[in-house]
């Protein structure tokens, strides 16, 4: 099969990561996509890479560079700081990037990836899952058209440390899960309606309860309540916009990560073929990252951060 860069139709993908999200979303979606050749899987644990690759007839790689050599694009399902290193290498070689949220913890690391992608003509998409659901896209377009919004509110409270939850094991979530795991989804939901953020202030309480206030450039205020360690009976995803026309609640959407990931791949292929950039491109991912980094700085420094 010829690669996209050789004028073929399939985008050759390498998957980096063998954890729960690689299993639940990235790998099945890559295998199911008609315009993707799922070439291989890299993981730090060769047995896990072999097991995941074997499920889809892909090849396991122990050398990141060897997998990068064999593909047009990468899908990354690794902790944010580890993703940042792989993404920078991939972008430096002109590989298209399907990154997971958040792109990185550090703004400098994100900026380096964005710059390398630009310099090497690599397209990029960041997988903010719900933003790839048509119901949410429709809701946001209608909400933007209505206008007159004064407030955004997002409660995103997970409870991942119960028995059998696949996301409870990762070290980075234990350290910074509320802000950096569910926070990207929350910020990605409000930015298209309320616009860029001017100021950020945040406090973190017990059970990872993280409260973030955003003042948008246009004057509206967003309130985020985030946690991955909430007591099980507080678990919820409630979001709404409040303004001149009243309250508009974000509709619940079915949990369909494989279908959503397929749409992220669609966006990447369009952009890689010279079409428009995805609204969820690297620049958008970087904007989300700047807001989260400011919230982290506000929590540690006890002050409001101006962007
Ligand atoms: N878009 C969404 O809705 C959504 C949902 C869930 C997760 N995610 C994102 O997907 C990414 C992966 O999440 P995850 O839940 O699968 O779990 P994770 O614990 O963040 O990552 C698991 C993978 O990373 C590997 N890993 C951990 N530390 C490493 C290191 N220092 N060097 C190399 N590899 C390392 C693990 O290897 P071992 O197996 O060998 O430990 C495993 O393959 C995260 O960025 C997360 O934010 C997104």
Describe the overall structure.
The protein is α/β, with parallel strands linked by helices. The chain is 42% helix and 24% strand. The chain has helices at residues 20-32, 46-55, 64-69, 80-92, 107-119, 134-146, 171-194, 257-272, 282-301; strands at 11-16, 36-42, 59-61, 73-76, 96-100, 124-127, 149-157, 197-204, 210-216, 221-227, 236-243, 246-249, 305-306. The strands form two sheets. The protein has a seven-stranded mixed sheet with strand order 12-11-7-10-9-8-13. A six-stranded parallel sheet has the order 3-2-1-4-5-6, sandwiched between helices. Strand 11 (236-243) and strand 12 form a beta hairpin. The longest helix has 24 residues, at 171-194. The mean pLDDT is 96. Bound molecules: NADP nicotinamide-adenine-dinucleotide phosphate. NADP nicotinamide-adenine-dinucleotide phosphate binds next to helix 1, helix 4 and helix 7.
């Amino acid at each position: 099969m010829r690669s996209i860069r050789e004028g073929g139709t399939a985008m050759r993908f390498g998957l980096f990561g063998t954890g729960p999200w690689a299993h639940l979303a990235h790998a099945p979606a890559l295998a199911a996509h008609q315009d993707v050749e799922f070439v291989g899987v890299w993981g730090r644990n060769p047995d896990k890479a072999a097991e995941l690759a074997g499920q889809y007839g892909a090849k396991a790689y122990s050398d990141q560079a060897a997998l990068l050599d064999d593909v047009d694009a990468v899908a990354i399902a690794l902790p944010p700081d580890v993703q940042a290193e792989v993404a920078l290498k991939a972008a430096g070689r002109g590989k298209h990037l399907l990154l997971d949220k958040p792109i990185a913890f550090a703004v400098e690391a994100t900026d380096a990836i964005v710059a390398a992608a630009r310099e090497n003509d690599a397209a990029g998409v960041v997988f903010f899952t719900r933003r790839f659901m048509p119901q949410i896209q429709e809701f946001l377009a209608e909400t933007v058209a209505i206008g007159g919004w004064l407030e955004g509110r997002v409660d995103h409270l997970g409870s991942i440390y119960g028995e059998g939850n696949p996301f409870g094991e990762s070290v980075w979530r234990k350290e910074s899960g509320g802000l950096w795991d569910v926070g990207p989804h929350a910020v990605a939901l409000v930015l298209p309606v309320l616009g860029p953020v001017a100021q950020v202030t945040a406090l973190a309480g017990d059970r990872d309860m993280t409260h973030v206030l955003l003042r948008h450039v246009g004057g509206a205020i967003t309130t985020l309540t985030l946690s991955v360690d909430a007591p099980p009976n507080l678990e919820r995803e409630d979001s709404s916009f409040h303004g001149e026309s009243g309250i508009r609640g974000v509709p619940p959407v079915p949990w369909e990560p494989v279908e959503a990931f397929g749409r992220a791949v669609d966006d990447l292929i369009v952009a890689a073929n010279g079409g428009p950039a995805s609204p969820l491109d690297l620049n958008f991912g970087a904007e989300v990252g700047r807001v989260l980094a400011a919230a982290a700085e506000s929590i540690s420094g006890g002050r409001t951060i101006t962007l």
